[in-house]
Amino acid sequence: MSTATYETIQVAREGHVATITLNRPDKLNAINLKLVMETLDAVMALDRDASVYAAVITGAGEKAFAAGADIEAMSTMPYIDAMNFAHHGHALGLRLENAHFPIIAAVNGFALGGGCELAMACHLRIASENAKFGQPELKLGIAPGYGGTQRLPRLVGKGVALQLILTGETIDAREAHRIGLVNKVVPSAELLAAAEQLLRAILAMGPLAVRLALEAVDQGLEMSLDEGLLLEANHFGLLAATRDMKEGLGAFLEKRAPKFEGR
Fold first, then answer.
1. Could you tell me which residues are beta bridge partners of residue 170?
2. Angle at alpha carbon of residue 149, lines to 148 and 150, rounded to 5°
3. 199 and 104 in contact (C-beta within 8 Å)?
4. What is the pLDDT along the chain (263 residues), one digit of tens a residue?
5. Torsion sign over Cα 237, 98, 188, 132
6. Between the CA of residue 145 and those of 43, 66, 115, 233, what are the distances in Å?
7. Among the four 31, 136, 170, 197, which has the fewest Cβ within 10 Å?
8. What is the DSSP annotation of the chain?
9. Angle between helices 114-121 and 148-156 (to 10 degrees)
10. The pTM is what?
11. Does the annotation count 117 as an active-site position?
12. Active-site residue, from 7, 62, 72, 117
């Protein structure tokens, strides 16, 4: 794993679980290029580490996960820099989405603009009761640039996504849960504990099975049904040849907890 010292994020490890904390609390964890590049570096390093089975991304402080892009920095960007800023954001979103392990966004407060887009690139989202979500870019004369026009419709449907994007409306955690943007809403004080509980449930599964299930869902969404089913069958066959499959089936028949090895 990378030994880099980061300025805008913090990375911690506990066993097989990594936690990335967006760490610009004085700016409500607003996203600038350095934060994007440091988060990308950290996720790439974790993705190269086979001992990482899951990760959580959250924001420092109690007010924000990430309150959007750093408007001050964006206000002086020329065209080419703005386009590159979007490309780097896309690279981060794809790296999160395609990680070999599940990533949970623990949303503690504002997740607006790029913050909402960053959360949407994670596999699962848990929100505190005080979380707020939205894509307010049009209010500034710009449009979502970190994947919001693509991931939001995939998560909540075209009509709801267009309403949120075109009005710049901010919604609370309960509404985000109702429309399918987040998986679960919990009291603020229980946010990280709820994320850890979900991770424990995932970590009890076979790690190879988790990895291939993630791949099948993510890649299958971009395929025809026939192609997706073929991918699923290939993964099913691959897993049938693993020691973990034999352990899982054996443990079930013997009525005991399985001891997966990731091979």
1. 134
2. 90
3. yes
4. 445 789 999 999 999 899 999 999 999 999 999 999 999 999 999 999 988 999 999 999 989 999 988 777 777 777 888 888 889 999 999 999 999 999 999 999 999 999 999 999 999 999 999 999 999 999 999 899 999 999 999 999 999 999 999 999 999 999 999 999 999 999 999 999 999 999 999 999 988 999 999 999 989 988 999 999 999 999 999 999 999 999 899 989 999 999 988 88
5. negative
6. 20, 15, 11, 35
7. 197
8. ---PPPSSEEEEEETTEEEEEE--GGGTT-B-HHHHHHHHHHHHHHHT-TT--EEEEEESSSSEEE-SB-HHHHTT--HHHHHHHHHHHHHHHHHHHT-SS-EEEEE-SEEETHHHHHHHHSSEEEEETT-EEE--GGGGT----SSHHHHHHHHH-HHHHHHHHHH--EEEHHHHHHTTS-SEEE-GGGHHHHHHHHHHHHHTS-HHHHHHHHHHHHHHTTS-HHHHHHHHHHHHHHHHTSHHHHHHHHHHHTTS-------
9. 60
10. 0.90
11. yes
12. 117
Residues 6+ away with beta carbon under 8 Å from 78: none
Amino acid identity, position 255: K
Question: CB-based burial of residue 162 (10 Å sphere; 0-12 exposed, 13-18 middle, 19+ buried)?
Answer: middle
Active site residue 232: no
Cβ 251 vs Cβ 259: under 8 Å: yes
- Give the type of residue at 41: D
Q: How big is the chain, counted in residues? A: 263
Catalytic residue among 7, 137, 196, 222: 137
